[in-house]
Amino acid sequence: MKSYKLVTYRSAVGPRAGIVVEEEVFDVAALTGRSSYATMLAILNDWEAAQALLEKAAGIKKRKEKGVPLEKVRLLVPVLYPSTIFCAGANYSDHLMEIAVARGINPDPDPRTLGLKPWHFIKASRSVVETQSTVPLPEHSRMVDWEAELVAVIGRPAKNVSVDKALEYVAGYTVANDLSARDLSARPHIPDNSPFKYDWIGQKSFDGACPVGPWIAPAKEIPDPQNLSIKLWINDVLKQDSHTSKMIFSTAEQIAHLSTRITLHPGDLILTGTPAGVGMARNEFLKAGDEVKVWIERIGTLTYKMA
User: Fold this and answer.
1) pLDDT digit string (tens) for 62-99?
2) Where are the domains of the chain?
3) Which of 58, 97, 272, 285 ranks highest by number of CB atoms within 10 Å?
């Protein structure tokens, strides 16, 4: 199978689904002869048939359609717009350890030993922004943190799926940064033991809070999502340097668990958690002008700038 990536790119007629082959971008609808494949959501909603057509198109040596050099194409968020963005909380062992050290407390026990399941929250789908974008700092926060994350892109409706079958529902993987306004997480003047203490919208769903991209790497090219290096740099200074094997609950376990609570749909994004190296642990936060780069092995690099 010839390697390819899936993108959404800016065309003269608006966002279009594209396929990247050998550093050239081709319009998916034109290359496959399927006019309905103009958007990424349309492709994902027909993933069973689409992936075979995409593999065939990528493998053709001489194409009738002319590609555009990748460096001349403006890439958008791969999925415009995901119906739901699920985010795993506290899901890397090294991250839990650094939080404990920063707070001067004993680390929490492995949630598995307590009989706990994966834990997720939802991020607003319109908070996504593309690679090479400029992300405005939210007006009411001075503590915006970074969180590099592997993202699973769902390609088939999933309900009550088993762990051993869960990855079959993944179309591909991409890169995200779960930006978090730490100083907006707890509502002031509300008792710590109140169920109304936390402001998840303010902390996690401000405009631009979810940079995603640059593309979707097909799942067939990443047989084991728990075997990937993950890194993040701020102004070329390495801040996060870890490995997806340090997840507490694997990608498959997260998908299986979520599918017991709600049907997962094509185009849904599952952000699988962040490793150690976040700003909160060192009392360091993003500021205007910072350049952020997130890289995941075998997928690619997401870049953006804070303003």
Assistant:
1) 777 889 999 999 999 999 999 999 999 989 999 888 87
2) 5-72, 85-306
3) 272
Sign of the torsion angle spanned by Cα atoms 296, 300, 305, 306: negative
Task: Determine if the peptide bond prior to 214 is cis (ω within 30°).
Answer: yes
* CB contact at 8 A, 83 and 126: no
CA distance 155 to 46: 8
**φ, ψ dihedrals at 202, nearest 5°:** -60, -40
| pLDDT mean over 144-154 | 98
Cα gap 204→59, rounded to integer Å: 41
Q: Residue 26 corresponds to which tokens in the numbers above?
A: 């081709």
Question: pTM value?
Answer: 0.96
Q: Do residues 277 and 241 touch, judged by C-beta distance below 8 A?
A: yes
Is the separation of the CB atoms in 136 and 307 below 8 Å?
yes
For residue 285 the two structure tokens come to: 């936060």
